[in-house]
UniProtKB/TrEMBL annotation:
Catalyzed reaction equations: small RNA 3'-end nucleotide + S-adenosyl-L-methionine = small RNA 3'-end 2'-O-methylnucleotide + S-adenosyl-L-homocysteine + H(+)
Protein name: Small RNA 2'-O-methyltransferase
CDD domains tied to this protein: AdoMet_MTases (cd02440)
UniProt similarity note: Belongs to the methyltransferase superfamily. HEN1 family.
Species assigned in the record: Asanoa hainanensis
Entry keyword set: Magnesium, Metal-binding, Methyltransferase, RNA-binding, RNA-mediated gene silencing, S-adenosyl-L-methionine, Transferase
SUPFAM superfamilies in UniProt: S-adenosyl-L-methionine-dependent methyltransferases
EC nos: 2.1.1.386
Length: 467
Protein backbone atom coordinates (compact mmCIF):
# COMPACT_ATOMS: atom_id res chain seq x y z
CA UNK A 1 0.00 0.00 0.00
CA UNK A 2 1.24 3.47 -0.81
CA UNK A 3 0.32 6.99 0.28
CA UNK A 4 2.34 10.09 -0.62
CA UNK A 5 2.18 13.57 0.89
CA UNK A 6 3.79 16.38 -1.09
CA UNK A 7 4.14 20.12 -0.69
CA UNK A 8 5.48 23.12 -2.60
CA UNK A 9 5.74 25.23 0.53
CA UNK A 10 9.10 27.03 0.60
CA UNK A 11 11.35 25.57 1.87
CA UNK A 12 9.56 22.34 1.02
CA UNK A 13 11.87 20.28 3.21
CA UNK A 14 10.05 21.72 6.23
CA UNK A 15 7.67 18.82 5.59
CA UNK A 16 10.23 16.61 7.34
CA UNK A 17 10.02 18.77 10.47
CA UNK A 18 6.22 18.62 10.45
CA UNK A 19 6.18 14.84 10.03
CA UNK A 20 9.03 14.36 12.52
CA UNK A 21 10.91 12.31 9.92
CA UNK A 22 14.36 13.14 8.49
CA UNK A 23 14.22 13.27 4.66
CA UNK A 24 17.65 11.64 4.30
CA UNK A 25 16.67 8.42 6.08
CA UNK A 26 14.26 5.51 5.64
CA UNK A 27 12.15 5.07 8.76
CA UNK A 28 10.80 1.59 9.58
CA UNK A 29 7.96 0.73 11.96
CA UNK A 30 6.68 -2.66 13.12
CA UNK A 31 2.92 -3.05 13.12
CA UNK A 32 0.56 -5.88 14.09
CA UNK A 33 -0.32 -6.18 10.40
CA UNK A 34 3.20 -6.01 9.00
CA UNK A 35 5.84 -3.32 8.48
CA UNK A 36 5.57 0.33 7.47
CA UNK A 37 8.26 2.49 5.91
CA UNK A 38 8.47 6.27 5.58
CA UNK A 39 10.86 7.70 3.02
CA UNK A 40 11.24 10.84 0.92
CA UNK A 41 11.50 10.14 -2.82
CA UNK A 42 12.12 13.86 -3.37
CA UNK A 43 13.33 16.48 -0.92
CA UNK A 44 14.24 19.88 -2.35
CA UNK A 45 13.69 23.52 -1.54
CA UNK A 46 10.83 23.84 -4.05
CA UNK A 47 9.16 20.46 -3.66
CA UNK A 48 9.20 17.67 -1.09
CA UNK A 49 7.30 14.38 -0.99
CA UNK A 50 6.98 11.87 1.84
CA UNK A 51 5.86 8.32 1.11
CA UNK A 52 4.22 5.90 3.54
CA UNK A 53 4.57 2.29 2.37
CA UNK A 54 2.82 -0.55 4.20
CA UNK A 55 3.80 -4.17 3.70
CA UNK A 56 1.04 -6.41 5.04
CA UNK A 57 2.18 -9.72 6.53
CA UNK A 58 1.02 -12.64 4.41
CA UNK A 59 -0.98 -14.72 4.55
CA UNK A 60 -3.70 -12.70 6.21
CA UNK A 61 -5.41 -15.40 8.25
CA UNK A 62 -8.30 -13.39 9.54
CA UNK A 63 -11.73 -14.00 8.12
CA UNK A 64 -12.46 -11.97 5.01
CA UNK A 65 -15.02 -9.16 5.58
CA UNK A 66 -17.33 -10.48 2.89
CA UNK A 67 -17.35 -14.00 4.33
CA UNK A 68 -15.44 -15.49 1.39
CA UNK A 69 -13.60 -18.46 2.93
CA UNK A 70 -10.51 -18.27 0.74
CA UNK A 71 -10.45 -14.53 1.26
CA UNK A 72 -8.29 -14.95 4.32
CA UNK A 73 -5.55 -16.29 2.04
CA UNK A 74 -6.31 -14.59 -1.27
CA UNK A 75 -7.17 -10.91 -0.90
CA UNK A 76 -6.21 -7.38 -1.92
CA UNK A 77 -4.85 -6.32 1.47
CA UNK A 78 -1.16 -6.11 0.51
CA UNK A 79 -1.93 -3.93 -2.50
CA UNK A 80 -4.98 -1.68 -1.94
CA UNK A 81 -5.14 1.14 0.59
CA UNK A 82 -7.66 0.39 3.32
CA UNK A 83 -8.27 0.77 7.03
CA UNK A 84 -4.90 -0.97 7.56
CA UNK A 85 -3.18 2.02 5.96
CA UNK A 86 -5.12 4.34 8.27
CA UNK A 87 -3.74 2.52 11.31
CA UNK A 88 -0.21 2.72 9.87
CA UNK A 89 -0.61 6.44 9.22
CA UNK A 90 -1.67 6.99 12.83
CA UNK A 91 1.44 5.25 14.17
CA UNK A 92 3.90 6.72 11.66
CA UNK A 93 2.72 10.33 12.03
CA UNK A 94 1.23 10.39 15.52
CA UNK A 95 3.15 13.48 16.63
CA UNK A 96 2.29 15.35 13.42
CA UNK A 97 -1.40 14.60 14.03
CA UNK A 98 -1.27 16.54 17.30
CA UNK A 99 -0.62 19.71 15.31
CA UNK A 100 2.62 20.42 17.14
CA UNK A 101 6.19 20.78 15.91
CA UNK A 102 9.12 21.52 18.20
CA UNK A 103 11.26 22.97 15.39
CA UNK A 104 8.48 24.66 13.35
CA UNK A 105 5.63 25.50 15.79
CA UNK A 106 4.22 28.35 13.69
CA UNK A 107 4.29 26.27 10.52
CA UNK A 108 2.41 23.44 12.23
CA UNK A 109 -0.45 25.89 12.83
CA UNK A 110 -0.35 27.23 9.25
CA UNK A 111 -2.22 26.00 6.17
CA UNK A 112 0.26 24.98 3.46
CA UNK A 113 -0.21 23.59 -0.07
CA UNK A 114 -0.53 19.80 0.10
CA UNK A 115 -0.81 17.07 -2.53
CA UNK A 116 -2.04 13.66 -1.40
CA UNK A 117 -1.85 10.64 -3.68
CA UNK A 118 -3.16 7.12 -3.07
CA UNK A 119 -2.77 5.24 -6.36
CA UNK A 120 -4.87 2.20 -5.36
CA UNK A 121 -7.63 2.84 -2.83
CA UNK A 122 -10.45 0.46 -2.06
CA UNK A 123 -13.53 2.66 -2.41
CA UNK A 124 -17.01 1.23 -1.89
CA UNK A 125 -19.09 3.93 -3.51
CA UNK A 126 -16.67 4.81 -6.27
CA UNK A 127 -15.12 8.09 -7.30
CA UNK A 128 -18.31 10.02 -6.52
CA UNK A 129 -18.17 9.06 -2.84
CA UNK A 130 -14.52 10.09 -2.60
CA UNK A 131 -15.50 13.52 -3.92
CA UNK A 132 -18.45 13.80 -1.52
CA UNK A 133 -16.22 13.06 1.45
CA UNK A 134 -13.15 15.16 0.65
CA UNK A 135 -14.44 18.12 -1.41
CA UNK A 136 -16.40 19.71 1.48
CA UNK A 137 -13.16 19.76 3.47
CA UNK A 138 -11.53 22.11 0.97
CA UNK A 139 -9.75 19.69 -1.36
CA UNK A 140 -9.73 19.60 -5.13
CA UNK A 141 -10.50 15.93 -5.66
CA UNK A 142 -9.36 13.84 -8.61
CA UNK A 143 -10.68 10.29 -8.20
CA UNK A 144 -10.19 8.02 -11.22
CA UNK A 145 -11.91 4.65 -11.30
CA UNK A 146 -9.48 1.81 -12.04
CA UNK A 147 -10.80 -0.68 -14.62
CA UNK A 148 -11.01 -4.37 -13.79
CA UNK A 149 -8.87 -5.08 -16.84
CA UNK A 150 -7.57 -2.38 -19.16
CA UNK A 151 -7.65 -4.93 -21.96
CA UNK A 152 -11.36 -5.58 -21.41
CA UNK A 153 -13.11 -2.25 -20.88
CA UNK A 154 -16.47 -4.01 -21.23
CA UNK A 155 -15.87 -5.56 -17.80
CA UNK A 156 -16.31 -2.15 -16.22
CA UNK A 157 -14.66 -0.55 -13.21
CA UNK A 158 -13.07 -2.27 -10.23
CA UNK A 159 -13.84 -1.34 -6.60
CA UNK A 160 -10.65 0.77 -6.57
CA UNK A 161 -9.82 4.37 -7.41
CA UNK A 162 -6.65 6.34 -7.97
CA UNK A 163 -7.14 9.28 -5.58
CA UNK A 164 -5.42 12.66 -5.62
CA UNK A 165 -6.23 15.49 -3.22
CA UNK A 166 -4.93 19.05 -3.61
CA UNK A 167 -5.58 21.70 -0.99
CA UNK A 168 -4.15 24.32 1.32
CA UNK A 169 -4.67 23.05 4.84
CA UNK A 170 -2.85 22.39 8.09
CA UNK A 171 -0.96 19.12 7.79
CA UNK A 172 -2.49 17.88 11.06
CA UNK A 173 -5.99 18.46 9.69
CA UNK A 174 -5.21 16.51 6.52
CA UNK A 175 -3.81 13.59 8.52
CA UNK A 176 -6.99 13.47 10.61
CA UNK A 177 -9.13 13.56 7.48
CA UNK A 178 -7.21 10.61 6.02
CA UNK A 179 -7.22 8.70 9.30
CA UNK A 180 -11.02 8.83 9.47
CA UNK A 181 -12.00 8.68 5.81
CA UNK A 182 -9.76 5.89 4.52
CA UNK A 183 -11.65 3.29 6.60
CA UNK A 184 -14.93 4.92 5.59
CA UNK A 185 -14.15 4.51 1.89
CA UNK A 186 -12.90 0.96 2.48
CA UNK A 187 -16.03 0.16 4.54
CA UNK A 188 -14.47 -3.02 5.94
CA UNK A 189 -12.50 -2.47 9.14
CA UNK A 190 -9.93 -5.15 9.73
CA UNK A 191 -9.84 -5.09 13.51
CA UNK A 192 -12.32 -5.33 16.37
CA UNK A 193 -14.51 -2.23 16.67
CA UNK A 194 -15.30 -1.43 20.29
CA UNK A 195 -16.50 1.55 22.30
CA UNK A 196 -12.94 2.94 22.17
CA UNK A 197 -13.48 3.65 18.47
CA UNK A 198 -16.24 6.12 19.34
CA UNK A 199 -13.82 8.30 21.28
CA UNK A 200 -11.15 7.96 18.58
CA UNK A 201 -13.63 9.15 15.95
CA UNK A 202 -14.82 12.14 17.98
CA UNK A 203 -11.25 13.19 18.75
CA UNK A 204 -10.04 12.81 15.15
CA UNK A 205 -13.17 14.54 13.85
CA UNK A 206 -12.91 17.56 16.13
CA UNK A 207 -13.53 20.78 14.24
CA UNK A 208 -14.83 19.22 11.00
CA UNK A 209 -16.90 16.05 11.39
CA UNK A 210 -19.88 17.53 13.25
CA UNK A 211 -20.67 19.83 10.32
CA UNK A 212 -19.74 17.49 7.46
CA UNK A 213 -22.68 16.97 5.07
CA UNK A 214 -21.95 13.20 5.06
CA UNK A 215 -21.61 12.99 8.84
CA UNK A 216 -24.05 10.11 9.29
CA UNK A 217 -22.49 7.97 6.56
CA UNK A 218 -19.00 8.61 7.95
CA UNK A 219 -19.98 7.64 11.49
CA UNK A 220 -21.86 4.50 10.51
CA UNK A 221 -19.13 3.19 8.22
CA UNK A 222 -16.28 4.08 10.59
CA UNK A 223 -18.04 2.19 13.38
CA UNK A 224 -18.70 -0.86 11.19
CA UNK A 225 -22.45 -0.14 10.90
CA UNK A 226 -23.00 -0.84 14.59
CA UNK A 227 -26.10 1.02 15.71
CA UNK A 228 -25.07 0.58 19.34
CA UNK A 229 -21.96 2.62 18.62
CA UNK A 230 -23.18 4.91 15.84
CA UNK A 231 -26.27 6.37 17.49
CA UNK A 232 -24.53 7.65 20.66
CA UNK A 233 -21.69 9.05 18.55
CA UNK A 234 -24.09 10.92 16.29
CA UNK A 235 -25.79 12.33 19.38
CA UNK A 236 -22.43 13.56 20.73
CA UNK A 237 -21.67 15.25 17.43
CA UNK A 238 -25.13 16.83 17.29
CA UNK A 239 -24.60 18.27 20.75
CA UNK A 240 -21.34 19.85 19.61
CA UNK A 241 -23.31 21.62 16.86
CA UNK A 242 -25.50 23.44 19.38
CA UNK A 243 -25.21 27.21 19.63
CA UNK A 244 -22.99 28.44 22.44
CA UNK A 245 -25.03 31.09 24.26
CA UNK A 246 -22.96 33.54 26.25
CA UNK A 247 -23.29 37.13 27.29
CA UNK A 248 -21.28 39.64 25.31
CA UNK A 249 -19.58 42.59 26.96
CA UNK A 250 -21.19 44.69 24.22
CA UNK A 251 -24.54 44.13 25.94
CA UNK A 252 -23.35 46.34 28.79
CA UNK A 253 -22.96 50.00 27.76
CA UNK A 254 -19.79 51.97 28.41
CA UNK A 255 -19.88 54.12 31.53
CA UNK A 256 -19.70 57.31 29.46
CA UNK A 257 -22.26 56.16 26.88
CA UNK A 258 -25.48 58.03 26.17
CA UNK A 259 -28.30 56.12 27.89
CA UNK A 260 -30.65 56.93 25.02
CA UNK A 261 -28.23 55.74 22.33
CA UNK A 262 -29.29 52.57 20.45
CA UNK A 263 -27.52 49.33 21.33
CA UNK A 264 -24.47 48.47 19.25
CA UNK A 265 -26.18 45.35 17.88
CA UNK A 266 -28.97 47.55 16.48
CA UNK A 267 -26.51 50.05 15.02
CA UNK A 268 -24.60 47.18 13.42
CA UNK A 269 -27.72 45.70 11.79
CA UNK A 270 -28.67 49.14 10.48
CA UNK A 271 -25.23 49.51 8.89
CA UNK A 272 -25.45 46.05 7.29
CA UNK A 273 -28.92 46.77 5.89
CA UNK A 274 -27.69 50.04 4.43
CA UNK A 275 -24.78 48.28 2.75
CA UNK A 276 -27.15 45.66 1.32
CA UNK A 277 -29.48 48.31 -0.07
CA UNK A 278 -26.56 50.23 -1.56
CA UNK A 279 -25.43 47.03 -3.33
CA UNK A 280 -28.83 46.62 -5.00
CA UNK A 281 -29.10 43.04 -3.74
CA UNK A 282 -32.47 41.29 -3.78
CA UNK A 283 -31.50 37.67 -3.03
CA UNK A 284 -29.55 37.56 0.23
CA UNK A 285 -27.76 34.95 2.35
CA UNK A 286 -27.41 35.53 6.09
CA UNK A 287 -24.48 33.21 6.84
CA UNK A 288 -24.24 32.35 10.51
CA UNK A 289 -27.71 33.78 11.07
CA UNK A 290 -27.95 32.62 14.69
CA UNK A 291 -31.35 33.30 16.29
CA UNK A 292 -32.44 35.45 13.35
CA UNK A 293 -32.25 39.12 14.38
CA UNK A 294 -31.02 40.25 10.96
CA UNK A 295 -33.43 37.89 9.21
CA UNK A 296 -36.34 39.69 10.86
CA UNK A 297 -35.06 43.04 9.55
CA UNK A 298 -34.62 41.58 6.06
CA UNK A 299 -38.16 40.19 6.11
CA UNK A 300 -39.49 43.64 6.95
CA UNK A 301 -37.98 45.12 3.79
CA UNK A 302 -39.83 44.09 0.60
CA UNK A 303 -36.87 44.86 -1.66
CA UNK A 304 -35.33 41.58 -0.48
CA UNK A 305 -37.22 39.00 -2.50
CA UNK A 306 -35.35 35.86 -1.39
CA UNK A 307 -33.75 35.44 2.03
CA UNK A 308 -31.80 32.41 3.23
CA UNK A 309 -30.70 32.02 6.84
CA UNK A 310 -27.78 29.63 7.27
CA UNK A 311 -26.38 28.27 10.52
CA UNK A 312 -24.53 25.19 11.70
CA UNK A 313 -26.58 24.86 14.89
CA UNK A 314 -30.04 23.27 14.72
CA UNK A 315 -31.01 25.03 17.94
CA UNK A 316 -30.18 28.44 16.48
CA UNK A 317 -32.31 27.70 13.42
CA UNK A 318 -35.19 26.57 15.65
CA UNK A 319 -35.00 29.86 17.58
CA UNK A 320 -34.93 31.79 14.28
CA UNK A 321 -37.97 29.89 13.02
CA UNK A 322 -39.91 30.82 16.16
CA UNK A 323 -38.78 34.44 15.95
CA UNK A 324 -40.00 34.66 12.35
CA UNK A 325 -43.14 32.64 13.20
CA UNK A 326 -42.23 30.06 10.58
CA UNK A 327 -43.06 27.27 13.04
CA UNK A 328 -46.76 28.26 13.10
CA UNK A 329 -48.72 27.56 9.91
CA UNK A 330 -50.74 30.60 8.87
CA UNK A 331 -48.98 32.94 11.31
CA UNK A 332 -47.49 34.98 8.45
CA UNK A 333 -48.62 35.62 4.90
CA UNK A 334 -47.89 32.88 2.38
CA UNK A 335 -45.94 35.29 0.18
CA UNK A 336 -43.59 35.88 3.12
CA UNK A 337 -43.08 32.18 3.78
CA UNK A 338 -42.05 31.88 0.13
CA UNK A 339 -39.45 34.64 0.54
CA UNK A 340 -37.46 32.95 3.31
CA UNK A 341 -35.96 29.60 4.14
CA UNK A 342 -33.59 28.30 6.79
CA UNK A 343 -30.71 25.97 5.94
CA UNK A 344 -28.34 24.02 8.15
CA UNK A 345 -24.82 24.20 6.78
CA UNK A 346 -21.25 24.89 7.86
CA UNK A 347 -19.52 27.90 6.35
CA UNK A 348 -16.18 26.10 6.10
CA UNK A 349 -17.67 23.58 3.66
CA UNK A 350 -18.75 24.05 0.07
CA UNK A 351 -22.52 23.89 -0.30
CA UNK A 352 -24.04 24.04 -3.78
CA UNK A 353 -27.31 25.33 -2.31
CA UNK A 354 -25.63 28.65 -1.49
CA UNK A 355 -24.38 29.54 -4.95
CA UNK A 356 -25.55 32.38 -7.18
CA UNK A 357 -26.98 34.88 -4.67
CA UNK A 358 -26.72 38.65 -4.95
CA UNK A 359 -25.21 39.16 -1.51
CA UNK A 360 -24.07 37.34 1.60
CA UNK A 361 -23.71 38.69 5.14
CA UNK A 362 -21.41 37.32 7.84
CA UNK A 363 -22.33 39.53 10.77
CA UNK A 364 -20.13 38.89 13.83
CA UNK A 365 -19.33 35.39 12.51
CA UNK A 366 -15.68 35.04 11.50
CA UNK A 367 -14.38 35.59 15.05
CA UNK A 368 -16.24 32.42 16.10
CA UNK A 369 -14.17 30.37 13.63
CA UNK A 370 -10.68 29.05 14.42
CA UNK A 371 -8.15 31.11 12.49
CA UNK A 372 -6.77 27.95 10.89
CA UNK A 373 -10.23 27.36 9.33
CA UNK A 374 -10.60 30.85 7.85
CA UNK A 375 -8.99 29.85 4.50
CA UNK A 376 -11.64 27.12 4.17
CA UNK A 377 -14.38 29.66 4.97
CA UNK A 378 -13.00 32.05 2.34
CA UNK A 379 -12.91 29.29 -0.27
CA UNK A 380 -16.49 28.23 0.39
CA UNK A 381 -17.96 31.76 0.57
CA UNK A 382 -15.88 33.76 -1.91
CA UNK A 383 -14.79 30.89 -4.14
CA UNK A 384 -17.63 28.37 -4.28
CA UNK A 385 -20.75 30.43 -3.43
CA UNK A 386 -19.33 33.68 -4.89
CA UNK A 387 -22.13 36.18 -4.24
CA UNK A 388 -21.88 39.54 -5.94
CA UNK A 389 -21.43 41.30 -2.59
CA UNK A 390 -20.13 39.99 0.72
CA UNK A 391 -20.57 42.02 3.91
CA UNK A 392 -18.54 41.06 6.98
CA UNK A 393 -18.56 42.65 10.43
CA UNK A 394 -16.20 41.80 13.28
CA UNK A 395 -15.10 43.46 16.55
CA UNK A 396 -12.31 46.03 16.61
CA UNK A 397 -9.96 44.68 19.28
CA UNK A 398 -8.41 48.13 19.84
CA UNK A 399 -11.73 49.41 21.15
CA UNK A 400 -11.90 46.75 23.87
CA UNK A 401 -9.95 48.86 26.35
CA UNK A 402 -12.97 51.18 26.58
CA UNK A 403 -15.14 48.39 28.01
CA UNK A 404 -15.01 48.35 31.80
CA UNK A 405 -13.50 45.19 33.28
CA UNK A 406 -12.51 43.59 29.97
CA UNK A 407 -8.78 43.81 30.85
CA UNK A 408 -7.39 42.30 27.67
CA UNK A 409 -10.01 39.55 27.33
CA UNK A 410 -12.32 39.17 24.36
CA UNK A 411 -15.88 40.43 24.20
CA UNK A 412 -17.53 37.02 23.94
CA UNK A 413 -16.60 33.69 25.54
CA UNK A 414 -16.90 31.89 22.18
CA UNK A 415 -14.62 34.24 20.21
CA UNK A 416 -11.52 32.50 18.86
CA UNK A 417 -9.81 35.82 18.09
CA UNK A 418 -10.45 39.55 17.80
CA UNK A 419 -8.50 41.65 15.31
CA UNK A 420 -7.16 45.17 15.27
CA UNK A 421 -8.09 47.40 12.35
CA UNK A 422 -4.77 46.68 10.65
CA UNK A 423 -5.16 42.92 11.06
CA UNK A 424 -8.67 42.92 9.63
CA UNK A 425 -7.61 45.13 6.73
CA UNK A 426 -4.71 42.80 5.88
CA UNK A 427 -6.96 39.72 5.97
CA UNK A 428 -9.69 41.39 3.91
CA UNK A 429 -7.22 42.59 1.28
CA UNK A 430 -5.75 39.10 0.96
CA UNK A 431 -9.15 37.46 0.55
CA UNK A 432 -10.25 40.05 -1.99
CA UNK A 433 -7.09 39.64 -4.08
CA UNK A 434 -7.26 35.84 -3.97
CA UNK A 435 -10.88 35.62 -5.11
CA UNK A 436 -11.35 38.55 -7.47
CA UNK A 437 -13.11 41.08 -5.24
CA UNK A 438 -12.52 44.68 -4.26
CA UNK A 439 -13.05 45.67 -0.63
CA UNK A 440 -13.80 48.79 1.39
CA UNK A 441 -13.83 49.00 5.19
CA UNK A 442 -15.58 51.38 7.58
CA UNK A 443 -16.23 51.67 11.30
CA UNK A 444 -19.64 51.12 12.89
CA UNK A 445 -20.74 52.59 16.20
CA UNK A 446 -19.50 55.49 18.34
CA UNK A 447 -15.89 56.08 17.30
CA UNK A 448 -12.98 56.97 19.55
CA UNK A 449 -10.44 59.41 18.10
CA UNK A 450 -7.52 57.04 18.68
CA UNK A 451 -9.07 53.58 18.89
CA UNK A 452 -11.70 53.78 16.16
CA UNK A 453 -15.22 52.34 16.21
CA UNK A 454 -16.28 49.22 18.14
CA UNK A 455 -17.22 47.29 14.99
CA UNK A 456 -15.43 46.91 11.66
CA UNK A 457 -17.51 46.46 8.51
CA UNK A 458 -16.07 45.31 5.18
CA UNK A 459 -17.94 45.33 1.86
CA UNK A 460 -16.48 43.00 -0.80
CA UNK A 461 -17.65 43.47 -4.40
CA UNK A 462 -17.02 40.76 -6.98
CA UNK A 463 -15.36 41.69 -10.24
CA UNK A 464 -17.93 40.88 -12.91
CA UNK A 465 -20.71 40.13 -10.42
CA UNK A 466 -22.02 36.69 -9.44
CA UNK A 467 -20.14 33.79 -11.01
Amino acid sequence: MLLTIGTTHRPATDLGYLLMKHPDRVHELDLPTGRAFVCFPEAGEERCTAALVLEVAAPDRRAAPDGFTLGRFVNDRPYAASSLLSAALNKAFRTAMTGRSKERPELAATAIPLEIRIPVLRCRGGADLADRLFAPLGYDVTATAIPLDAGHPEWGASPYVDLRLDGTLRLADTLHHLYVLLPVLDDAKHYWVSTDEMDKLVRAGEGWLAAHPERELIVRRYLAHSRALSEPTLERLAESDDLVVADSVEDAPREDADEDAPALAEVRRTAVLRALRDSGAQRVLDLGCGPGALLADLMADRRFTEIVGVDIAPRALAVAARRLRLDRPGAIAERDTQRIKLVQSALTYRDARLGGYDAAVLMEVIEHVDESRLPALARSVFGAARPGTVIITTPNAEYNSLYAGLAGAMRHTDHRFEWTRAQFADWAAGVAAAHGYTVSIEGVGPADADLGAPTQLAVFTAAGGVA
